[in-house]
Amino acid sequence: MTTLIGTQQIANHHEGTIESGRLFAAGANASLIDHEQAYGPLELHGINASFIDVVARAGLTGRGGAAFASWRKLAATQSNTSARRFTRTVVIANGAEGGPLSFKDKTLLANAPHLVIDGVLVAGRAVNDAQLYMYVNAGSMPAVKAAISQRHDASKIKVILSPDTFLSGEASAVVNAVASNTALPLDKRLRLSQAGLKGQPTLVLNVETLAHTALIARFGAAWFRDMGTEHDPGTRLISVSGHGSEQVLEVAGSASVGDILATAAVDPSAVQAILIGGYHGRWVRPLNYRLAPQGPRNEVVRPGAGVIHLLGMGQCGLTSTAAIARYLAGESAKQCGPCMFGLPAMAKTLTALASGDRDPRLPAELARLAMLVSGRGACNHPDGFVQLIDSALETFSEDVDAHLSGRCMATQGGQL
Predict the structure, then answer these.
(1) How far is CA 46 from the centre of its chain?
(2) Fewest CB within a 10 Å sphere: which of 43, 74, 253, 345?
């Protein structure tokens, strides 16, 4: 059975709970004293570019969505800083968390802000004494500012407010927001590690990724690998929502969906389908899937932003997905054709199918639009949108047939 972390309730998140584990070992709303009692003081004097090799051995991947190898981001930023003779580079902790179903970063910043701050300081030392920023939403701002005020070593960290939009956490949008207060994606002709904020090499890492970085700096790569699997080491935070549940769990790498639901005290027989990864994620039904950055598609689902959303019996998957599609179409940057025209067209077509339009050409039209949109956006938003729609048509294929015949299976065959 997959090992899961956390059985002791330590804090509330809205009406739900979070569970203790590596990242919440200091307890709820941890002060600096609580933090140092749990983890010990942070020793920065030995942190330099060689620490990147430690992160590589640990196998840490990004916890914000893309699951990119964290050491590669660190190495690219550090290398470009040295090669171009920049005296300083930029590190930005990304805590925007704009996805509506994700609240694990908010929970982390509320309860363990000092662990994230430690990660920012460590990353800054690893990439040549960087300029440091924390980019967080309004709800996280008080806890972050209070934590920084408790520390003499964090006084140079600048805290930037992120807007409450879906794309506010996209890496280039983060840089744009820090530079100009406009959280829209930038042209990606150059990587941020080459030319980010004000043309400087820039490292953008999710706040949970930085919290794990701080633990690796304290306890090492082997300790980090004590949990998880060889190809997915460590732990990750998961936001579980839907079907009356709202909680944050810390789970081992490659945890199975069934084990996660068991720990969340969710009856799987009451769950019709599960959306994994958030609004850019994938609908699945079997519980024997594992959450991991890579693996066979029939066995593994990428955790994305660390979201598990439960669709209960009696809820229509097509209707739910159409509502998400309309939201995503409205949240686009509107800077390229796929976002301006393709996403609204797909949302309109899926809404027609979900609402009882019996035109048999609707599924084919969705497929045609998906081909026009995929791989052509200025950022990854169109591709994430298409992945969601494709997974809905696959997972709810019987519902598609039922809707085209004028019935909805979620309402026990009720007429549309």
Answers:
(1) 30
(2) 43
**Are residues 164 and 29 part of one domain?**
yes
Region 373-380 average pLDDT: 90
For residue 296, count CB atoms less than 10 angstroms from its CB and return exposed for 0-12, middle for 13-18, buried for 19 or more.
Answer: exposed
- DSSP class per residue in 110-125: HH-HHHHHHHHHHHHH
Residue showing tokens 């609908």: 283
C-alpha–C-alpha distance, residues 292 and 254, integer Å: 5
Tokens 């990004």 correspond to 62
Round to whole Å and give the CA distance between 203 and 81.
11
Domain contains 4: no
How far apart CA 86 and CA 103 sit, in angstroms, is 36
- State the DSSP H helix or E strand holding residue 13, giving kind and residue range, or none if neither: strand 9-13
CA distance linking residue 370 with residue 365, whole number of Å: 8
Per-residue pLDDT at 187 exceeds 90: no
- Which residues are CB-contacts of 204 (< 8 A; sequence separation ≥ 6)? 73, 92, 94, 171, 174, 175, 192, 196
Rg (CA), the chain: 21
Helices (H), 239-297: 257-263
For residue 85, the model assigns a pLDDT of 65
Domain limits for position 204: 23-224
How far is residue 239's CA from residue 291's CA, in Å, rounded to a whole number? Answer: 13
> Does residue 328 contact residue 381 with C-beta atoms inside 8 Å?
yes
Query: How sure is the predictor about 359, in pLDDT bands with cuts at 50, 70 and 90?
Result: very high
CATH number of the domain to which 342 belongs: 1.20.1440.230
Residues constituting the chain: 416
Which residue type sits at 319?
T
Instruction: Report pLDDT digits (tens) over 16-30.
Output: 444 558 999 999 999
Structural domain ending residue among the three candidates 312, 331, 365: 312
Alpha helix positions (H), 62-127: 70-83, 104-111, 113-126
CB atoms within 10 A of CB 167: 22
Please indicate, yes or no, whether residues 171 and 30 belong to a single structural domain of this protein: yes
Overall domain count for the chain: 3
Q: Which amino acid is at 38?
A: A
C-alpha distances in Å from residue 123, one per residue of 60, 73, 182, 285, 381: 13, 10, 25, 39, 28
